[in-house]
Amino acid sequence: MRAGVGLARLRRCEPWRFGRRAYVDSKDHIVSVQKMTNPMDVLDYMSQHSDADIRTYETSLRSLARLQRGNQADFLQDDRFHAILSTLANRLEDCDATMLAKISDAAARCSRTSTPELSDLAQRLAEVVCQRGGTLSPRNLATVAMALSMRGVRDAPTIEFLRKEVLKRIDDLEPAHCNILLEAFRRWGVFDRELIDFLVERMSDEVDRFTTRDLVDAVAVISRLGLARRFLLSRLRALAFENLEQFSMKQLATMSYAMARLRILEAKDLDQLVKTLGPKITELVASQISEFLFALAMVNARNHIETAQELASRYAEAGRMGFQNRSTNSLIDFVWALAALDLVGQFQEHFTGALGEVFERNTPQNREPLLKLFDICCALEMDYADLDIKVPAPWKAACEDCDKMEMDRLENSKLHNEVMMRFNQLRASTKGMKWELQMQRNAGCGPYRVDMFDEDTKIAVDLDIVSWPTSRHMKHRLLQRDGYRMLNLQYWHWRQARTEEDQNLFLEAAVTRALEANSPPSIESS
């Protein structure tokens, strides 16, 4: 009798005991994989435990992503790695939303270069995710969107599904989620005004909840998108400089770079930044140095020229020592900043060397470095011909084509049409002489193009918009030497003129100052 009861109890316990054993096995597998320091060990382990659960497979993919360094990325071509990806793809239907997000994130982190197997897994993830409408939390939604954009999944149904899911959950999104989603849709090349407006509005509502990381990520993605959202940017700038001591040097470099590009970095802000930077300048790596130097150049910070010189010296030292990798973007920022701050003479050797290093590489597809380098090519022609730097034909053609394409694109923008209309209606007099400008759009001035140009007065106008990657200081300094009267119309200042009458007065004052000057001046309209 007792034997029968004992057996019955044992049988009732069996499901629990087996479930407990499976859970322990899974934890053991996960811990074992996480401790490994060689990708091949991970592959060996998973080939010996092919019956492991989905959590172990996700952990193995994440560990491989963490361990990929140099030659250790050879595992990408290993059949055992392909087996891991295949197993994950086959088990996705059984995963909940959180596990789908984790696998998406691990796949995105695994190798900057795509492989057919990784692409297949990403596409399968997209298919399964699109069947889970309403089940993705805000965090999972942001994670999946970013991962798929990084892995190059660009099919319209997936993007549209995620867009609709974001709009459904907009009131639940936190600042970090908004930043990630903006970046994901930027990577996809999707500029959906409704979506962006809702995300920016949500960020504005939650601005008091921003962490330092949220703030840095926000200004960075907004600058990359070229969004002119004054209310949010003003709040973020004020919040940043009220809590400057809470940011790391890396965060300060990223934030300064982004704010300078957005044209919201003010003189008093620079004073605080330079003061904060002072005792920690020796801690900066090459990429951070070039970002700080570029920010100073963007605002033409002549009052902080000594700091700029020290930054340039440290960047040059990093290149000479060869212990820090200097990316193409970082090198271009460095040479542009030297030219913009008129420091090429002091750092001629390093300016020439950095350009030589750039020209040894392939031309990028990104418009921003090409537009920056176009400024440099013009400066080499107009101001530094004695350096005898030869720009390779592929680089020169790429820069010129990029500048022409961007200028042509902006020629008929809403803002340019608005300013042009005001110029067409502008009639005034200076020193008793009546004048009327006959503006030509997208006109050539020396090696440059300007947004608008009046041939009789030689008044050349550029609209300094937040989506243009460089300020106009260097360009206008060089053209002024050739006799042009340069007007730099800052986007934020123009937007402060609310009515047509205010806009007319704004332009009239700027043109009058130019015409009354004894020699063609460089005028910052304010």
UniProtKB/TrEMBL annotation:
Signal peptide: none
InterPro entries: RAP, RESC6_dom
Domain RNA-editing substrate-binding complex 6 protein: start-end pairs: 135-303
Pfam families registered for this protein in UniProt: RAP (PF08373), RESC6 (PF26188)
Organism: Durusdinium trenchii
Top-level taxonomic group: Eukaryota
Coiled coil: none
Domain RAP: 471-507
Protein name as catalogued: RAP domain-containing protein
